[in-house]
């Protein structure tokens, strides 16, 4: 009896491993892609899947993913997203209107476009040192209490639109756009230098 159980147990374990490894990344069919600006890599233009925890693959149909298109993941009830290291550009409002509580921005990013993470649930964010410009409303409508940011990042404004809520933009500028961790507590910001 025990000898007959061993092959069945091994089969179940193999199926579990295969199921887990297949779920590490989304299926290619859950993404609509087109050529990126460089003509050599790809841009995700729309997410068609239903998962709320997204792990974006580093390549789809043999093309490396380097860009996320405008509104590609907007209003999809996404709770988490993992970016591959090759992402260099995320277009406007790409992840707006979701339920992201945190996000790790790829280190290769140099610019975060307008409204990219607007209207989520992000409480803390670390902006990579390579980012030199953040578009207006990029993190607007998030309950941010901690922002780690590099020196001299340009925070774009348009009329009364700002990058962040809670007067962070003014505080960052008033402190000479210094690198550090800015913490919001009791209706005011404080700065801990890097």
Based on CA atoms alone, the radius of gyration comes out at: 20 Å
Distance between the termini: 64 Å
**CATH class, anyone?**
Alpha Beta
**How many DSSP-defined strands?**
14
Strand content: 25-35%
| Poorly predicted segments | 15-24
- The ordered H/E elements are HEEEEEEEEEEEEHEE
Please describe what this structure looks like.
With 194 residues, this protein is α/β, with parallel strands linked by helices. A hairpin with a 2-residue loop joins strand 4 (59-60) and strand 5. The radius of gyration is 20 Å and the shape is globular. The strands form 4 sheets. Strands 1, 2, 4, 5 and 7 form a 5-stranded mixed sheet that branches. Strands 9-11-13-14 form a 4-stranded mixed sheet, covered by helices on one side. It is built from 2 helices and 14 strands. It has a single domain, classed as Leucine-rich repeat, LRR (right-handed beta-alpha superhelix) (Alpha-Beta Horseshoe), CATH 3.80.10. The protein has helices spanning 2-23, 168-174; strands at residues 31-35, 42-47, 53-55, 59-60, 63-68, 80-82, 89-90, 111-112, 124-126, 133-134, 146-149, 154-155, 180-185, 188-193.
């Amino acid at each position: 009896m025990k000898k007959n159980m061993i092959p069945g147990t091994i089969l179940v374990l193999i199926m579990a491993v295969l199921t887990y490894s297949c779920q590490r990344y989304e299926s290619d069919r859950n993404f609509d892609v087109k050529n990126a600006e460089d003509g050599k890599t790809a841009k995700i233009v729309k997410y068609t899947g239903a998962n709320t925890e997204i792990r974006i693959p580093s390549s789809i149909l043999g093309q490396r993913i380097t860009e996320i298109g405008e509104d590609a993941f907007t209003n999809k009830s996404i709770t988490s997203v993992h970016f591959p290291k090759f992402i260099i550009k995320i277009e406007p409002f790409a992840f707006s209107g979701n339920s992201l509580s945190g996000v790790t921005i790829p280190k290769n990013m140099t610019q975060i476009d307008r409204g990219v993470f607007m209207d989520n649930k992000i409480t803390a964010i670390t902006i990579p040192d390579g980012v030199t410009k953040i578009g207006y409303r990029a993190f607007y409508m998030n309950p941010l209490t901690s922002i780690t940011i590099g020196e001299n990042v340009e925070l774009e404004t348009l009329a009364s639109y700002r990058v962040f809520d809670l007067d962070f933009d003014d505080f960052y500028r008033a402190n000479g756009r210094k690198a550090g961790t800015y913490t919001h507590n009791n209706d005011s910001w404080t700065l801990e230098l890097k």
